[in-house]
Amino acid sequence: MIDSHFHLADEAFEPDLEAVVGRALGAGVRQGLCILAAGDAVEGAERLAGLWPAVRFAAGVHPHQAGAFAGDPGRAVATVRAALAANDRVRAVGEIGLDYHYEFAPRSVQQDVFAHQVRLARELDLPVVIHTREATEDTVAIIRREGGAALRGVFHCFSGDADMAREALDHGVSLTVFAEGGRTLDGRVKPFQKGVFRIVRDLGFPIVPMSMVGSFEFNRKGSWMLHPSTIVVHLHDTIETKGLSREELEALPDRVYEIVAKPVHAALEGSGAKGIGEGPA
Ligand SMILES: [Zn+2]
Ligand SMILES: [Zn+2]
């Protein structure tokens, strides 16, 4: 199992990094991609690689940090190049993208910094890790304009429509989609919205159902506090959607719901279902 996104080089993890890595390895996480903010101290990355030699890194200027490069996106690119030169385990450019929800930097600045980094990824033939929030349309437009056909990567959250999904998938980017409309107050999985299943079937891509057990405990409804807990991620068997009949498509949301909800509800009822990829929260 590979964990494709964490920030363990952050100094917040320094005091107990060894224990955190130990728990991940003990739970069967063999490889991981640690996201470095460009300009991060190299010590954090070295400390992590020392404890976990298989770890690899992505380096990039996050949209939250784009404001520091206003009017000078070339300097953002230079910062990423410097991170690449300083660390021979860097394998991706990221996380990069657009965040119009927080909008810590003006949109035009975010777009500029993002576009330059996509261009860099293409030049270096590296995959991208994309952070996008309430900015799918502009994100896809920049990928289309700057990335070209050869760009690869991952969106770590996706909320666009069918055309945008097609665009991203055609660019070799896989998508994480939340089909559920949220959790009930006691942590149960709410019924799935159906539209996403139709989109996936029409595009002919497979689904990998995923359950997250313990996330409710970690981030309780109605609270902005994150509580210490263990999150278990279940990756279920792949379901092909190409050529599903109308009846099969009708039944698909319930079929996936049953698979996804089962371990979540079992854990809430205290039967303690165990999954792969148990990791620290
Ligand atoms: Zn991140
Ligand atoms: Zn992110």
Verbal overview:
This protein is α/β, with parallel strands linked by helices and 281 residues long. It has a domain at 203-281. It has helices at 17-26, 42-51, 73-86, 107-124, 136-147, 162-170, 195-203, 215-218, 246-268, and strands at 2-6, 31-37, 56-60, 90-99, 128-133, 153-155, 173-174, 210-213, 230-235, 279-280. The chain has a seven-stranded parallel sheet. A three-stranded antiparallel sheet has the order 8-9-10. The two termini are 16 Å apart. One zinc ion binds at residues 95, 131, 156.
| Estimated structural class | alpha/beta
**Strands side by side in the biggest sheet:** 1-2-3-4-5-6-7
Mean pLDDT equals 84
Distance N terminus to C terminus? 16 Å
**What does the radius of gyration come to?**
20 Å
Major beta sheet summary: 7 strands, parallel
Q: Helical region count?
A: 9
Strand content: 15-25%
Bound molecules: zinc ion
Helix content: 25-40%
In total, how many beta strands?
10
- Element-by-element helix/strand order: EHEHEHEHEHEHEHEHEHE
Identify the overall geometry: globular
* Uncertain residue ranges: 272-281
In short:
The chain contains nine helices and ten strands. It has helices at 17-26, 42-51, 73-86, 107-124, 136-147, 162-170, 195-203, 215-218, 246-268, and strands at residues 2-6, 31-37, 56-60, 90-99, 128-133, 153-155, 173-174, 210-213, 230-235, 279-280.
Features:
281 residues; alpha/beta; 3-stranded antiparallel β-sheet; globular; disordered C terminus; binds zinc ion
Helix/strand layout:
Layout: E1 2-6, H1 17-26, E2 31-37, H2 42-51, E3 56-60, H3 73-86, E4 90-99, H4 107-124, E5 128-133, H5 136-147, E6 153-155, H6 162-170, E7 173-174, H7 195-203, E8 210-213, H8 215-218, E9 230-235, H9 246-268, E10 279-280
Parallel strand pairs: 1-2, 2-3, 3-4, 4-5, 5-6, 6-7
Antiparallel strand pairs: 8-9, 9-10
Helix pairs in contact: 3-4, 4-5
